[in-house]
Amino acid sequence: MADLHSDVWAGTSRFTAQWHQNMLVQQWLPLVPGTEAKLRAGGRVADVGCGTGQALIALARAYPAITATGYDAHQPSIEQARRAAAEAGVAGRVSYHALDATAGLPESFDVITTFDVVHDAVDPLGLLRAIRDALRPGGRYLCLEINCSDHAADNTGPIAALLYGFSVLYCMTTSLAEGGEGLGTLGLPEPALRQLAGKAGFTQVRHVEMDNPFNRLYELTR
User: Fold this and answer.
1) Class of residue 91 by CB neighbours under 10 A (exposed 0-12, middle 13-18, buried 19+)
2) 150 with 190: CB under 8 angstroms?
3) pLDDT for the residue 7
4) Buried b (16+ CB within 10 A) or exposed e, 104-131
5) Cα-Cα-Cα-Cα dihedral of 32, 15, 109, 132, to 10°?
6) Distant-in-sequence, close-in-space partners of 5: CB < 8 Å, separation ≥ 6
7) Which CATH number does the domain housing residue 210 bear?
8) Which has the least CB within 10 A, 53, 104, 191, 216?
9) Within a domain: 1
């Protein structure tokens, strides 16, 4: 990760910012009322693989009772996230820390989120176990992943070509570079996620129905 040009991180942040600014609160959370209720009640929230922190800033603005922590292994992104939270006026409730979450999270949480993260992980099973262990009883894990089929022949068209390009050039490669699983962008379709989640100890995985050609949303419980 440290060897990649800073433009990679800037581009990734710009690409995903529209999810957090225009979809997360407005479209996705109304589809998961159990998770949204915990946010409205002022739950403790973590975003794993938080990047430049946009998701938690959006959540803090929409749900003023929450306190939240973002974790990411990339220190420059954490520093940028801290600046962004300060500029947004939410730094008193949102903090960011450089951490490899696979080794475990230092606190417990009511809601944990990952946005397009698990398929990039060096150890996706270890990451899911760490998230499961950090959930409080009754807690919710909101997982956004790539919209893809487990049958390669079904992954066709311009969007699939774009996603496969991401996979080869970034997602799969960054994991393999660390000796990881190398799942890549199209390596975590729903059956694979369900299998990993079961091994990690989650008792329920709900595919949240939504109209989105790029992403699928899942709500997991302990």
Assistant:
1) middle
2) yes
3) 66
4) ebeeebbbbbbbbbbbbbbbbbbbbbbb
5) 80
6) none
7) 3.40.50.150
8) 191
9) no
Residues 6+ apart with CB under 8 A from 2: none
- For 37, the token pair is 């209720």
Cβ neighbour number for residue 167 with a 10 Å cutoff? 21
Joined together, the tokens standing for residue 82 give 């801290």
Distance CA 30, CA 16 (A): 20
Number of domains in the chain: 1
Compare 71 and 20 and report the one with higher pLDDT.
71
Domain that holds residue 33: 6-221
What is the number of residues in the chain? 222
* Residue 40 structure tokens: 């409205």
Any domain includes 183: yes
**Per-residue pLDDT tens over the stretch 125-181:** 999 999 999 999 999 999 999 999 999 899 999 999 999 998 888 889 889 999 999
Q: Are 220 and 138 in contact (CB under 8 A)?
A: no
Ordered DSSP codes for 101-146: GGG--SS-EEEEEEES-GGG-SSHHHHHHHHHHHEEEEEEEEEEEE
